[in-house]
TrEMBL record:
It is found in: Membrane. The chain crosses the membrane at residues 21-42. This is Neutral zinc metallopeptidase. It comes from Agromyces protaetiae. It is a single-pass membrane protein. Keywords: Membrane, Transmembrane, Transmembrane helix. GO terms for cellular component: membrane. The keyword Transmembrane helix applies.
Length: 291
């Protein structure tokens, strides 16, 4: 999806952290690949997984991004532009699904490793939302991983889909929905899967309306998505389905361990949000066969 070059994205909530967190040797004991598979897009408290690093003082640095043209040219500015659009979208949309909206505390782009309210995180963790500090964390090198390891085609909208998914977890946190994932259950109809599919649906709802969100001067943030760009987002959703990841990494699929949904489910729920808006995203009130 392409930004309106004249859009003012300075209001986007995004900051960057450098590499100044030391992870204790052996602190992430189950290994980078395992962490990635477990926590990718997880959106729940990762303190029991990320382990205890040895934190050093960190501070966020504001991005030097001002316009939609900057967002079209630089991935970090694209993240800031996406956050500005998502903020405008959810301020208007959240009340329609009974959520009293407040923005995430921060949207942090980090380099290799950082401290979070959920523990120490590394690039291997993948993008995630941390409920205790209400912050979204993304190492933008993940987008290369999405293409190289998991075969996604990439593209700007695929990148912004990731941000919109994590923003969806923030909406769920405000609504008290994320608490439902903490029952320890996995499998095709588990609450863990339902919460992830709902976040995909929320992402689709934002994409459908993104060309209508405007900056303070009334300029639209984004131009209407093309069919090709929608396919990029659907491709990214499919690339991180439980079945596809398990087949790629393990050579077999174990449905009883699903935590995020299959590739087809993730694509279908993104499409549901795109076609029906956030109000169509109730993944908790339907039977397992309808997921």
């Amino acid at each position: 999806m392409t930004f309106n070059p004249n859009a003012d994205i300075r209001g986007g909530k995004a900051s960057k952290r450098g590499r100044n967190t030391a992870i204790a040797a052996g602190g992430v004991g189950i290994g980078a690949v395992a962490i990635f598979l477990i926590s990718q897009f997880l959106g729940v408290d990762l303190s029991g997984i990320l382990g205890g690093g040895q934190p050093q003082e960190e501070s966020g640095v504001a991005l030097e991004c001002a316009t939609g043209q900057d967002a079209n040219e630089r991935v970090e500015c694209r993240m800031q532009g996406a956050s500005a659009s998502l903020e405008a979208f959810w301020q208007a949309e959240a009340p329609s699904i009974g959520v009293q909206y407040s923005p995430p505390a921060d949207f942090v782009l980090f380099d290799q490793q950082t401290n979070t309210g959920c523990g120490a995180a590394t690039s291997a963790t993948g993008p995630f939302y941390c409920p205790p500090d209400q912050t979204i964390y993304v190492d933008v090198t993940f987008f290369d991983e999405l293409e190289q390891r998991f075969g996604a085609h990439g593209g700007p909208l695929a990148e912004m889909y990731v941000v919109a998914h994590e923003w969806g977890h923030h909406i769920q946190n405000l609504a008290g929905v994320l608490e439902r994932t903490q029952d320890g259950q996995t499998g095709p109809t588990s609450n863990a899967v339902r919460v992830e599919l709902q976040a995909d649906c929320f992402a689709g709802a934002w994409v459908a309306d993104a060309a209508n969100t405007t900056d303070p001067k009334g300029n639209t943030f984004l131009l209407p998505p093309t069919r090709e760009q929608i396919n990029e987002a659907l491709d990214a959703a499919g690339a991180v389905g439980d079945d596809r990841i398990q087949q790629t990494m393990q050579g077999q699929v174990n449905p009883h361990t699903f935590t995020h949904g299959t590739s087809a489910q993730r694509q279908n729920w993104f499409a549901t949000g795109y076609q029906g808006g956030a109000g169509a995203c109730d993944t908790f009130s339907i039977s397992g066969s309808q997921l």
